Amino acid sequence: MTINSPTNLITLRGPVPLAHLILGQFLQQGGQAADATCGNGQDTLFLADQVGATGMVWAFDIQEEAISTTVDRLARAGLAGQVKMLHCGHEKISEYVPATLNAVVFNLGYRPGGDRSIITRPETTLAALEKALQLLLPQGILTATVYPGHAGGACEGRMVEAWADRLEPGQWHVWRMGQLNVATDAPYLILVQKGVGK
Fold first, then answer.
1. Rounded Cα–Cα distance for residues 179 and 31 (Å)
2. What is the residue-wise DSSP string for 67-136?
3. What is the pLDDT of residues 101-130, one digit of tens each?
């Protein structure tokens, strides 16, 4: 089942479906991807489905509940075989993942339904973003869903935007996408594509 199939239409409410729509155009069977913040496993499940049995996904989270929830979700979908779960922070991504990624997904903030005091932090997020870029193949995609509406979220969002703004235009294609008819602190998407010649 692919997200761009005419029989599998999606509703573009919020940045996560938009990220999946875009990633679906670049991530194919046999590809490799990383979910830097697996949370409840929705992005991990999407990535595993996209890469198929011949691909590989690495999924990171610091919360045991996030890991177990994601493992259960993958098992129910029959997609656990192509995912390596890593119970550690995303800033360690380069210690576990090869530099052959087609996509890296960040879904920042807190885990829905979890402890809201456990959030992604600007310092570790910045380190993870920097390392993730180095792992991307040419034309690879990095998406970061930013949630400015919670405590610490606006600060992290400013950091992500400042980081993305500094990327060399000839080497990286950087986009900021968000809905216009929502609250000013609604989530939005930062997308970075590695250039062909990088």
1. 30
2. HHHHHHHHHHHT-GGGEEEE-S-GGGHHHHS-S-EEEEEEE-SB-TTS-TT-B--HHHHHHHHHHHHHHE
3. 999 999 999 998 889 899 999 999 999 999
**Are 17 and 35 a contacting pair, CB within 8 Å?**
no
Radius of gyration of the chain (CA): 16
Residue 84 CA to residue 195 CA, distance in Å, equals 27
Contact present, 143 and 166 (Cβ < 8 Å): no
Residues facing 33 on adjacent strands: 57, 103
Maximum distance among all alpha carbons in the chain?
43
* Strand pairing class (172-177; 188-194): antiparallel
- Do strands 172-177 and 101-107 pair parallel, antiparallel, or not at all (unpaired)? unpaired
Residue 172 bridge partners (DSSP): 194
CB 145 within 8 Å of CB 106: yes
Token reading at 64: 């045991």
Q: Return the structure tokens found at 114.
A: 């979890």
Whether the Cβ atoms of residue 142 and residue 107 lie closer than 8 Å to each other: no
State the Cα torsion 58-61-67-72 to the nearest 10°.
-60
What is the number of other CB atoms lying within 10 angstroms of the CB of residue 144? 29
Threshold 0.85, pTM exceeds: yes
